[in-house]
Structures are given as C-alpha cells and as structure tokens.
Design brief:
Layout (H helix, E strand, L loop, with lengths): L6 H11 L21 E14 L3 H4 L8 E13 L4 E8 L7 E8 L3 E20 L8 E2 L15 H4 L1 E20 L2 E22 L2 E23 L3 E14 L3 E5 L11 E5 L4 E14 L3 E14 L24 E17 L2 E14 L5 E6 L3 E8 L4 E14 L5 E14 L5 E16 L2 E14 L24 E14 L3 E13 L6 E17 L4 E18 L8 E20 L4 E19 L10 E15 L4 E15 L14 E2 L8 E13 L1
Parallel strand pairs: 6-11, 9-31
Antiparallel strand pairs: 1-2, 1-32, 2-3, 3-4, 4-5, 5-7, 7-8, 8-9, 9-10, 10-13, 11-12, 13-14, 14-15, 15-16, 16-19, 17-18, 19-20, 20-21, 21-22, 22-23, 23-24, 24-25, 25-26, 26-27, 27-28, 28-29, 29-30, 30-32
C-alpha cells in the first residue's frame, strides 16, 4: 500500500519533535486573541466646526441649528486592570446639543456597572410665526387688538413673532449586572425628559388657529431581570415598568376670532395624560439534542390611565351636563406569547414552526359623554366611548432546503386571525404563502427570487353603536377590508473580474381591495436599484448607487354617505443617485474620501368629482448633499482630519406654499413654508491616541 505521507516529510516532523530542535515560542503573540493586556488606552478628540446657513432638516437630530462656530469634543477611555477590573468610557459631540456620554466599569465574573447620558434635539419647524403670548406655557393669551372677525382685521403686522417649534430630549441610563453561578441578575433604569414645543390647532365653530403646544414630560423606565445560562437551557424572567408624567395637562388659549353673542372666548385642549405600564416577562430556549431547538416568550402587562378630565367647555354661556366620571379609569390588560420550534429533519432540510398570540383586553368603562360642538353648541343626547380591544393569533410553518450545488430554497405559510371588539369588522383572517430561491448558475453570477401571495377575508360589516350619524355602510377601512396582495422581487449579484461587483434588484407589489366600494380600492408599488463597487487599485475604491421607487393608490369616496361619487388617485415618485470614493496615499498617511447624493421626490393627488375643476398642484422635494473628507496621520498616536459638507434642500407643498397667517380669512395660520435652504459645514478635528 502506498504511504499517505512521503518519507522525507515524516523525517522532518520527527526532527522538529526532538528536544534538540524544539521551537522557542516565548516570543510568539496572538493578534486575534480576545484577551486585553493590562493598561490604559484611549483617544482625545478636539476640534472646531463652522456652519453657514440653516435648515430644519439639517438641524433635526444633529444639533447644527445655527450659523457660527462651535467646539467639537469627544474621546474614549479603556482601562484594564491586572485582576480583571475594566473601565470603558466614550464621549461624542460634547460641544453640540446632540451630545452623548457612556461609561461602563466592572470586574470580570463579578459585576458590571453602566451609566449613560444623551441629548437629542428635535427641530419640527423653523418658519412658524404666532401672535400668542406665553409660548411654551400652558396658557396662551393675545395682545391688544384681538379678537377680530377675520384674519385681515387682526393686528398681525405688529404682533406676529417667529417661533422655533421643537423640543430637546435628555436621557439618563443606569444599570448593573451581577453573575451568580449560572444566573445573572440585571437592573436597568432610564429617566427621559422632553422639554420644548410642538404644533397643534384649536377651533371655534368655523374658525381655527394653529397653536404652539407645550412639551414638558418625563418617562421613567425600570427593568429587573434574572437570566440563566446552561448548556441546553437559557432562560430569563423579569419585570418592566414604564411611567409617563406630563407637567402640562392641558392648554388654554384665547380665541383670536370674535364669536358674537354665543361667547366662546377661551378654549382648552387636553394634552398627553399621565399613564403607566407594568409588565412581567419570561423567555426560554432549550436545545433538544444537536438537531432541534424550542424557544418561547411570554409577557403579561397592564396599562392604566387615570388623569382627571378637563372640562367639556370653558364657554360660560353654555349649560353643559356634568361629566359621567371625574377621570377615565382606563385599564388595558395585554398578553404577548410566542412559541417557536426548529429542527433539522435531514442534513439538507431544516423545518420550523411558530405560534403567537397578542391580546389587548380593554377594560376601560364605557362612558356617556356630553356633546359639545366647537365650544359653541350643546347637542342633545350623548356619545359613548368605545374601549376597543383585539386578539391576534398567528401560526407560521416554514422549511429551508439546500439543494444540489448552490441552489437554496425557502418556503413558508402563515395564517393570521384577528378578533376585534367594538369595530365595524369583528374578525379578519389572512393566509400568506411565500417562496424564496437562490442560485449561482455561474461562478460570477448569483440570483435570488422571492414571491409572496396573501389573501385576507373579513367578516360582515356591522354598524357601531352610538355613532350618530352612522357611517356609510359601504365604507371599508383598509386595515380591516378584504384584500388580495401579491409581491415579487429579484436580485442579481455579478462579479466582473476581481475588482468590480455589480448588484441589480427589482421589486413590485400590488394590493387589490376588490370588495371595497368606498375606501381604498387599489395600491401599487415598484422599485429598481443598482449598486456598483470598484476596487480601482490597492488604495482606491469607488462605489455608485441608484434607486427609483413608484407608489400609487386609488380610493373611492361618497359625499352623500351612499354610493361612491368621487375618486382620488395619489402618485408618488422617488429617485436617488449617489457615489462614494476613498483613496489612501503616501503609504497610508493620507486618506481622502468623498460622498455625493442627489434625491428627488414628487407627489401628485388627482381628485375626480365629475365637475370641471383644476387639479391639486404637484408637491416636490429635492435634497442634494456633498461631503469631502481628508485625514493626515502624523504618527501612530496623532491624526488630523477635516471635512466639508454642503446640503441643499428645496421643497414645494401646495398645503403650505403662499399660506401666510392672514391668507385664509377664518384660519390664523403659522405661515410656515416648505423647507428650503443651503447649509455649509466645515470641521477640523485633532485626535490623539494614547
């Protein structure tokens, strides 16, 4: 028999094994080992950013909300002690309103402590104006010269003031984990505060005004959990609570319009009420041998809301029946449960199944509320509140098969049943089939195709009690209507040589609401995307991408609450093209980069009533951005980086274009215009690593 190894190789192995020729491994190092050497490392970032121009979109979430210069500060810290003690800290954008700081320390195998702080600004509007005094408080008053019969008679030229609408969100996180044998105990706390303003509106009969609502609320979350980790079994049990408190329970505002003998000089709006969620949860996963696994989770919760009601009206001229209760006494019990099983039936076949149930048992009492119309009229009778609830059951079956060669096939089926209370449709059932296959017919070509078909059937429509006048019996809400859905997608990945990778993807979907006489009747979408990656050389890479999407829908309506007598058609188009470039020069000391993107959007709404009337103008949006970066590495510890970013945003919106505070006689508007503008941002950052 021929030997497996040649004799010369056996002789060489024997020589290496002898003590005289033993290899000295004392100087060997492991570059991929996860163990950290004791000591302290980190980085310090310090720089400056100079901004020119301002747009709401650029400022939202980023903190770059004004022209001028600001400091850019940050850094990292990592310390490893000799006996397993460790500290990790990270700071980002300390000079901005979007700053963040996180610290984690602990001892391996003993404990871990976590502490974090973050701030996130929201900029909702930068072009609104209002004559109201007390913006940001819970009481809005008007200066001299109000009220007036129409906006043209109001002294807006001398009373309007520009207001930025938005709020700051600050979050403090703290947590600890303590392992005890196979168990780990964990506690996490989050305190979140929002402070600022948001947009709202109020009305009196046929007049309305846009209002600046105050935002001043707190959300506290607590989670306690115990996790068990064994070879075959992993499990977690815990408790979660979320408590929301709003310092501003209601907004009171003065009516800017003269309302005549009926009064109505002051209005009131209830704001987000205090509420709580308490939840017990558990999850577990168990390996049934090497080929099968079962897992599941369950969460039982209760939501409550018992904030006192505000008055039905502040109009002293109205005799309003008293409220049936001082507060809602709201209570909703929830259940979320899932069970999953997966197993390898064959070496090339894996099957999986899941069951899930979601319950919302609304135990809020139904209340007969008095009917006050626009703070000027009291209507006879009352309107009962509808404590809506539902139960959703879902079952899924699927299989993954690895066929010959590179062929893979995934298939599955899903059945969903939703039972609702106090809704026009009591039950919907939906069945879904999907199939996905992938194949590599050539060494440089991979293709993936996915198909889906879903059919939803709804029970008979029923009129809701207490709705007067009743809704059109032909109306079907799209979320509960009979629907036939089909979708398909295909993607091809092509390798052109060793340096170019090309991807092409296309998808389409169609929803048919064949039994909806009034409501959404049809929806279509299609998309195409292309991406290209090209490694021009060892140090240069170019990426190109483009994407286009089209979405359209059609609905039917009725002006007489009977047969449909008008239709609406919405067409939305989106397009995006972009490129990226990176280059390393001078033996890696200089790194250059560039990113550019151009996006366009168009939305057109067509309403056909049978009468000759001009259509609604087309709404458009455009966003162009360019970012150039450069980094020079002086040494292994010192790097200077710089960037220049320019972003141009322009939009047209017929709902806002040209609508000034006094444009509509019976609407005191913000006069907000679609966002437009250009922002330039230049930054320099010095990073020192130690």
């Amino acid at each position: 028999m021929k030997p497996i190894l040649p004799l010369w190789l056996l002789a060489a192995l024997g020589a290496l094994a002898s003590p005289a020729l033993a290899v000295d491994t004392s100087a060997w190092t492991c570059s991929t080992c996860p163990f950290d050497e004791p000591g302290t490392t980190g980085s310090i970032d310090a720089g400056i950013a100079v901004q020119s121009g301002r747009t709401r979109r650029f400022a939202d979430f980023t903190g770059y909300d004004r022209s001028g210069a600001r400091a850019v500060l940050g850094g990292t810290l990592s310390h490893r002690g000799a006996e397993g003690f460790r500290v990790d800290a990270n700071a980002e954008d300390l000079g901005l309103d979007s700053r963040a700081l996180a610290v984690q320390l602990g001892h391996e195998g003993r404990y871990v402590l976590r502490l974090g702080y973050s701030a996130l600004p929201r900029h909702l509007s930068s072009s609104a104006a209002t004559p109201f005094n007390g913006v940001g408080s819970s009481v809005l008053t008007l200066p001299a010269g109000f009220p007036a019969p129409v906006t043209a008679a109001m002294p807006l030229a001398t009373t309007l003031r520009r207001v930025d609408i938005g709020y700051d969100r600050e979050t403090i996180d703290a947590g600890a984990s303590v392992p005890t044998g196979a168990w780990t105990l964990r506690a996490d706390i989050r305190h979140e505060r929002r402070a600022g303003t948001q947009a709202g509106a109020g009305s009196f009969f046929s007049t309305a005004a846009q209002l600046v609502l105050p935002v001043d609320d707190l959300t506290d979350q607590v989670e306690l959990a115990a996790t068990y980790g064994g070879r075959a079994l992993q499990a977690t049990v815990g408790y979660h609570a979320s408590i929301f408190r709003n310092d501003k329970q209601a907004l009171t505002w003065s009516n800017p319009f003269a309302s005549g003998a009926l009064g109505g000089g002051t209005g009131q709006l209830a704001l987000a009420p205090d509420n709580e969620l308490h939840q017990l949860f558990a999850n577990a996963a168990y390996a049934i041998g090497p080929q099968a696994r079962v897992s599941g989770d369950v969460a039982v919760g209760r939501l409550t809301q018992n904030t006192p009601f505000v008055a039905s009206t502040l109009n002293p001229a109205l005799a309003v029946p008293s409220l049936p209760a001082s507060s809602l006494h709201g209570r909703v019990d929830t259940l979320d449960a899932n069970l999953r099983v997966s197993a390898h039936a064959l070496p090339t076949l894996r099957v999986h199944a899941s069951l899930s149930r979601n319950e919302r048992d609304n135990r809020t009492p139904a209340l007969a509320m008095p009917l006050v119309a626009t703070d000027l009229f009291v209507l006879p009778g009352s309107r009962a509140t509808l404590p809506y609830g539902f139960t959703r059951d879902r079952i899924k079956l699927g299989a993954d098969w690895r066929g010959p060669g590179s062929f893979k096939l995934d298939a599955g089926a899903e059945h969903e049943r939703i039972a609702r209370t106090l809704q026009e449709v009591a039950t919907t059932r939906e069945d879904t089939l999907w199939l996905r296959g992938s194949l590599r017919p050539l060494d440089n070509l991979g293709v993936t195709v996915k198909l889906l078909r879903a059919e939803r059937d709804a029970s008979a429509w029923q009129a809701l009690p207490g709705i007067d006048p009743p809704e059109n019996p032909l109306l079907r809400r799209f979320s509960m209507a009979d629907r036939r859905r089909s979708s398909a997608s295909v993607r091809a990945d092509i390798t052109l040589g060793e340096t170019v990778a090309l991807g092409i993807a296309a998808e389409g979907a169609a929803d048919d609401y064949t039994r909806s006489a009034v409501g959404l009747t049809d929806a279509r979408s299609a998309g195409l995307s292309i991406d290209l990656g090209w490694a021009i050389g060892d140090n240069t890479r170019l990426t190109l991408f483009a994407q286009g999407d089209a979405v359209q829908s059609q609905q039917a309506g009725s002006q007489t609450a009977t047969q449909p007598d008008w239709t609406g058609h919405v067409k939305d188009r989106f397009g995006l093209i972009g490129a990226g470039f990176t280059h390393a020069a001078l033996k890696g000391k200089l790194e250059l980069g560039a990113q550019a993107a151009i996006s366009r959007a168009r939305s057109q709404t067509l309403v056909r009533t049978g009468a000759s009337a001009p259509g609604l103008p087309t709404a458009t949006g455009a966003l162009d951005s360019l970012k150039l970066t450069a980094a020079w590495r002086f040494s292994d510890t010192l790097t200077l980086s710089g960037s220049y970013r320019v972003e141009h945003h322009a939009a047209t919106d017929w709902q806002l274009d040209g609508v000034q505070p006094a444009t509509v006689p019976n609407l005191l508007a913000f006069g907000e215009q679609p966002p437009r503008g250009t922002v330039h941002l230049l930054s320099l950052l010095l990073r020192y690593r130690y």
